[in-house]
Structure formats: C-alpha cells, structure tokens
What does this fold into?
Amino acid sequence: NAGVMQNPRHLVRRRGQEARLRCSPMKGHSHVYWYRQLPEEGLKFMVYLQKENIIDESGMPKERFSAEFPKEGPSILRIQQVVRGDSAAYFCASSPRSGEQYFGPGTRLTVT
Amino acid sequence: GIQVEQSPPDLILQEGANSTLRCNFSDSVNNLQWFHQNPWGQLINLFYIPSGTKQNGRLSATTVATERYSLLYISSSQTTDSGVYFCAVDRSYSGGGADGLTFGKGTHLIIQP
It folds into this structure.
C-alpha cells in the first residue's frame, strides 16, 4: 500500500510565477490536508478537502493560494504570483473518514 | 484556537540515555499524534494516541486526556533518534471526519555517540 505521494519534491520558481503542488492520498483515504512549514516556524494547517469539496480553509492565505481535490486525480495546491515569503516546505496528509493522518514527503518550494 | 505546548524545546543526550518529552494542550481533542521529523525533513508517524498508552519498540506514549497532556518516552536512545519530535492535536469536530492538526513547536533532540 503506497503512502501519500507528493510531487514535485523540489520546486524552484521565480517571483511572480505560479507554483502547482500535487498530492495523491493513500489508497482508501478520502480526506486530504495541506500544511506549510516555514523556516524557523512550526507546521501550520492550511486547508482540509474531501473529494470536490473544501471543508475548512481557515489556514489559507486570503490571496494567491487555492486548493482543489477533484473527483479524479490528485489534490492540487496552487500558489499564484509567488513571492519570496512563500518559500517553505508544503506537506500533504491524508486520512480515512476520521482518525490518524499520514504525511507525504513534502514539496520544498524555493522562490528566487 | 487550541494551544499546544511542548517541552523541553531542546534536548541533548548521550547514546543509550532515556528521555521523556511532554505535550500540553488547552482543550479537549479528538486526535493526538506524535511525529518524528528526521534530518531529511520527512514526518514519520510515531503514535496515534488520543488517550491511553501505547508502545512500539523503544518508544512508548501516554495521553491523559482529562488532564490535557501527553508524554513520549524514548528509551536506550540511538543517534538515528535525532531530529524534531512534534505533538499535534485536532479539535473536537462535530461535523464528522478529522480536523486539521494544530502542531506544537517541537522538541529538538540530538543524540550524541
């Protein structure tokens, strides 16, 4: 049973470009979560999604960030017009209906 | 929102030593998890333990939900135990399904040979 998969593992973008981060949950998991780990800060919850629904986006910045989990395919975290402050590790986690969350290896975004 | 405090923030031990890491949380929770973030940045699940006691090899954990704390015990430490240990909780969520986790700031553990 494959774990949570994220790609790319490393992503470099210039200021103003768009970043797209992908997450495939574990088989049988219908709940997906995105977290961000900024340098010198802890892990912060961003958004919680189920298939075709955003359940809780209270941790998402109001502008430039969006997330989706379509009926088919991976969950996508999209960051438009990236700035240097977006440089961070972005982790995806998945869980079954309720309970333990399992984390992917993360995508390390560097904005130059 | 819920507050999660971990102690100590930093811990340096010799190989073979035992340690206890603490996590206090400010409200009732549905879910409590302990993670190890290794030097490569990967988050490894250690325990899912909203209450009670669990053991896995040299590691064990206890959560006393009524007193809002959890403890992680590491015995006979090895250099590969080095890294950051995070406690994370989710709020009691009435809508079904697990909520987003709130993480503590972590305990940075260094095991010296």
In short: The mean pLDDT of chain B is 92. The CA atoms of residues 16 and 78 of chain B lie 6 Å apart. The two ends of chain B are 40 Å apart (CA to CA).
